[in-house]
Design goal:
With 250 residues, the chain is of the alpha+beta class. It has 8 helices and 7 strands, in the order H-E-E-E-H-E-H-H-E-H-E-E-H-H-H.
């Protein structure tokens, strides 16, 4: 898939390539955390069969063929020799079971989002057009229960997402969900960028110049007309990988 068209149904092979690209690109952006964090993409019509990155393989080396196929309803998955990371299974199996529109799920602990998630008030305020993109469109999970290695943590996170496309997870990190890898990646890019703006603005010690609700909503709504730009963004980033590290497609 070239990433320029906003379509959510592609072949498993195309999904493998896109998900591997997103992992490599996230590593280049320094969003990853050692060999932790995890991305997934549904391959079945009901969303319950999904691909996820292999357990504890560094994202700079992940290839399309490395991605692991899992069934969200199969509890024996964690007994397999190629079982995913336990927190990946807890979070992603629950989301793919409970959130039908979450065809793609990206979970990260990127620096600025995680810094914001560690504040008493982790909300993103509409102080520029990127932060305003998230006005009324970002869920907040304020009930951190430790590393998400049990089913209850994943179930709670999945329910927090609701009908949304992203969740800020207090004391933890962030997750974006979307119909396509391109849209989930673009959302993560702009979520981390919004968090960076918030952290930098807070660092000045000056009062924030927060938009009123009407202007913030108008600005957020304008972002929704840019779906093609989201796909073009991912296509351009894949083009860089194709030139510099094409083995991600293998």
């Amino acid at each position: 898939m070239d990433g320029t068209q906003p379509t959510s149904r592609v072949s498993e092979d195309e999904l493998r390539v896109d998900l591997a690209a997103a992992l490599r690109l996230s590593c280049r952006a320094d969003w990853h955390e050692a060999v932790a964090n995890h991305f997934s993409a549904a391959v079945s019509a009901d969303g319950r069969t999904f691909l996820v990155n292999p357990r504890w393989k560094h994202w700079s080396r992940v290839k399309a063929s490395d991605l692991v196929l899992c069934d969200a309803d199969d509890a024996s998955t964690m007994d397999r020799p190629d079982a995913p990371d336990p927190s990946a299974w807890s979070i992603h199996s629950a989301i793919h079971r409970n959130v039908p529109h979450a065809r793609v799920v990206l979970h990260l602990h990127p620096p600025y989002c995680t810094a914001l998630a560690g504040l008493k008030d982790p909300t993103i305020k509409p102080i520029d057009q990127v932060t305003a993109r998230w006005f009324g469109r970002l869920s907040y999970d304020l009930n951190f229960g430790g590393i998400a290695t049990d089913g209850a943590e994943g179930e709670r996170i999945s329910k927090t997402i609701g009908n949304g496309s992203a969740v800020m997870m207090a004391n933890h990190g962030v997750t974006t969900v979307a119909p396509t890898v391109a849209e989930a990646f673009d959302a993560m890019y702009h979520l981390e960028r919004a968090a960076r703006t918030m952290v930098l603005a807070y660092s000045t010690g000056q009062p924030l110049n927060i938009m009123d609700d009407a202007l913030a909503e108008e600005t957020a709504a304008e972002w929704e007309t840019y779906k093609y730009a989201e796909h073009a963004h991912f296509a351009e980033m894949k083009a860089i990988l194709n030139a510099e590290a094409p083995d991600y497609r293998d």
